[in-house]
Amino acid sequence: MELRRKIKYRLLLNSRVRRAKTILRFIFLLLFCLSSGLLRAQQPDSVLISNIIKQAGNITTLRTLIVSQNSKVLIRKPYKGRNINQAFNIKSASKSIIGLLMGIAIEEGFVPSINEPIKTYFPDYFHRNPDSLKESITVKHLLTMQAGLRSTSSENYGAWVISDNWVEYALNQDFVTETGGQMVYSTGTSHLLSVIISKASGMNTKTFAEKYLFDPLGITVGGWDKDPQGNYMGGNNMALKPDYMLKIGRMLLDEGVYNNRQLISKAWIFDSFKTYTNSRYNPYGYGYQWWNQKIGGYSVFFAWGNGGQYIFMIPELDSVIIITSTTLNTTPRRRYKEAIFPLLKEQIIPFLKTRSR
């Protein structure tokens, strides 16, 4: 009996020892995880930033990366010898700026509303070419790329820009879908917005932009193409410094306010970032010349130009990310996106998420 009790006691003791070791291991693992998380929250910025800069450098087309959060610039890095203080062509990201300018034109009373028909601004054209369907196209249809007219972008872009009259060429296009229906992405459509702003305000679009947006933001345009009639291009070939792109993104996150001045109404920004239609060629939503998509669980709103020119805004993380890229050797498949969006999702957003805790 005594031997049996000793054996039973030893077995019980061994069991308790094993349980205690298991608990200690668990406590050690928990403390390790907590300490690792604490270290990540307190001091990994330099390590994570270094990794982001390195990963971005592996994208052969990328030329500039700026990452900002809470109005503080965390990363400002040029690549491949680019001068970050020089203005570069932001390509179709300029469409988003045209969208903002149209919002200002409406707020200032130059354009009555988004529902104003385009025939108001092109009376001579429609006098010569009466078409009740085209005359019913509105400013909103142009903003959302739902005019329904054949695109002047992609394979049709060359013929459009070498034409004698970009406005008439865009308006001469046949319908490929009903107005207000499927999205038809077209630089000619955005160009009509620029011309409407000019006709409605009595100023060319560049002067209008400088008065109501660029000058208050301290922005100087580096270059901006015109059509054969002298209208500033609405939707392509505008040159801005990356820091100026950052100012625009920051102002929008601040609900249209810059230096205590309301440049664009909060309501227009909210409406611009809604989804009214979707492209057949990508998974993004489209608003008033602005794109949007869920990335890494966050709503991301962005201006996008061919080759990889981006103003990304993530309101939940109070962050603006600027990316500019070379415009050489771009392809219709836009393969540059395959590297840029994973960088945003897998590197930049997790870093910003850690800092926002």
Give me the secondary-structure topology.
Blueprint: H1 2-42, H2 45-57, E1 62-69, E2 72-78, E3 88-89, H3 93-107, H4 123-128, H5 132-135, H6 139-143, H7 157-161, H8 166-171, H9 187-201, H10 205-217, E4 223-224, E5 238-240, H11 242-253, E6 257-258, E7 261-262, H12 266-272, E8 277-278, E9 285-286, E10 291-295, E11 298-305, E12 309-314, E13 319-325, H13 337-355
Antiparallel strand pairs: 1-2, 1-13, 3-5, 4-5, 6-7, 8-9, 9-10, 10-11, 11-12, 12-13
Task: Outline the structure in words.
The chain has a single domain, classed as DD-peptidase/beta-lactamase superfamily (Beta-lactamase). It is built from 13 helices and 13 strands. The protein starts with a helix and ends with a helix. The protein is elongated. About 3% of the residues have low confidence. The chain is of the alpha+beta class. A hairpin with a 2-residue loop joins strand 10 and strand 11. The strands form three sheets. The protein has an eight-stranded antiparallel sheet with strand order 2-1-13-12-11-10-9-8, with helices on both faces. It has a three-stranded antiparallel sheet with strand order 3-5-4.
Give the number of DSSP strands.
Answer: 13
What is the CA–CA distance across the termini? Answer: 62 Å
Indicate how many domains the architecture comprises: 1
- Could you estimate the helical fraction of the residues in percent? 40-55%
* Strand residues, percent: 15-25%
Q: Helix and strand string, N-terminal first?
A: HHEEEHHHHHHHHEEHEEHEEEEEEH
| Alpha carbon gyration radius | 27 Å
What descriptors fit this protein?
357 residues, alpha+beta, 13 helices, 45% helix, elongated
